[in-house]
Design brief:
alpha/beta, elongated, Rossmann fold, 346 residues, four-stranded parallel sheet, 10 helices
């Protein structure tokens, strides 16, 4: 299990997320170094964010956090990306970032290895490469900013679905793309935990919505037609869980088939309020993008090399320490339900 440490305590995560969002909307106090100049010879760092795809609400939120951070430390921010979540779609933007001499590239990978050649060519011309949300092979980047440990994310989803179906029944997984590094690892760990701790819960199918709303909606319909005894759908992707909830909320399966996984409060609010969804989990994606930007700054400015034990300051989030394999972990997943969802706005 990979580990990392930072000064902010995990029990305060939910309260802190609300305060952080309030700071964002109000402008907040500038982080140390907010002088319009970076640490790289007094010249502002250029940072490009490359999500899996554009138009994805999750990445719109995380990239907003990245932009906030870049503005705080006086860099220049840009966002590019493909319309569809494919590795080929990302390669052209990686190449462009290298050709334009960007200081740092922050991306969520659509494939762990297919984009490695382009990333390493960018690193050869001194572009700092930081992955967040979904990683590449470790040799293709300088740091990976993880939203939480893979074990923690998998366990949170297992506990949610087990509680909602009383520890037994048939479940299906509605994932993003078949090659998504993070999704596949979470699913593997969920399968292991279910087999060990919940032998009466059976995963009857795993399907892929490719982080596309309509395809995820259609896959939900297909799952319910194929598996008439299905008790729950677990979707470890914000696009998928919202599409599944939307389908079930307006069908005869409402109240019969549970939906859980990973989602954002604003996407899921109506489905929690109407009873379609009891509870789901996530982290604060705005904080994730914010942390990734500060991590990129630390590498691009030469403050850290990305080695285990390196420490850096991340503005309002405090100090973080690099763990094994160049990984930095934001925190633990947080569970949203009808009692707390009104406290969040992202």
């Amino acid at each position: 299990m990979r580990t990392t440490t930072h000064k902010r305590s995990i029990p305060a995560l939910a309260v802190f997320a609300v305060g952080a969002l309030a700071l964002t909307s109000c402008g907040g106090d500038s982080a140390e170094g907010d002088s319009g100049e970076s640490d790289s010879g007094g010249e502002a760092l250029s940072v490009t964010f490359l999500p899996k795809n554009l138009g994805n609400p999750y990445f719109e939120t995380s990239n907003a956090g990245g932009e906030e951070a870049v503005e705080e430390f006086g860099g220049t921010y840009s966002e590019v990306g493909p319309q569809e979540a494919t590795p080929d779609g990302q390669v052209e933007y990686i190449n462009t970032a290298a050709q334009q001499g960007e200081d740092a590239l922050v991306l969520s990978a659509n494939d762990p290895s297919a984009i490695c050649g382009a990333l390493n060519e960018a690193r050869d011309v001194d572009v700092a490469v930081v992955t967040f949300d979904s990683d590449t092979d470790a040799e293709c980047r300088d740091l990976f900013v993880n939203q939480a440990t893979a074990e923690g994310i998998a366990s949170a989803q297992v506990e949610l679905v087990a509680e909602q179906i009383d520890g037994e029944g048939e479940i299906a997984i509605l994932s993003a793309s078949a090659n998504a590094t993070n999704q596949n690892l979470w699913i593997e760990l969920m399968e292991e935990e279910l087999a060990a701790d919940y032998p009466d819960i059976e995963i009857v199918d795993t399907v892929y919505g490719d982080d596309d709303d309509q395809r995820s909606f259609d896959q939900t319909a297909a799952l319910l037609q194929t598996h008439p005894d299905l008790d729950a759908i677990v979707s470890p992707t914000t696009v998928g869980i919202a599409a599944a909830a939307r389908y079930i909320s307006d069908s005869d399966y409402a109240g019969e088939v549970a939906v859980t996984g990973l989602g954002t409060p604003n996407q899921m609010r109506e489905y929690v309020e109407d009873g379609t969804v009891e509870a789901f989990a996530l982290w604060n994606p705005e904080d994730l993008g914010y942390l990734a930007a500060f991590a990129a700054r630390a590498v691009a400015s030469g403050d850290i090399a990305g080695e285990e034990g390196d420490t850096f300051e991340a503005g309002r989030l405090g100090e973080y320490t690099v763990g094994a394999d160049g990984e930095v972990v934001l925190g633990e997943p947080f569970v949203f339900d009808s009692e707390n969802i009104g406290d969040f706005d992202f």
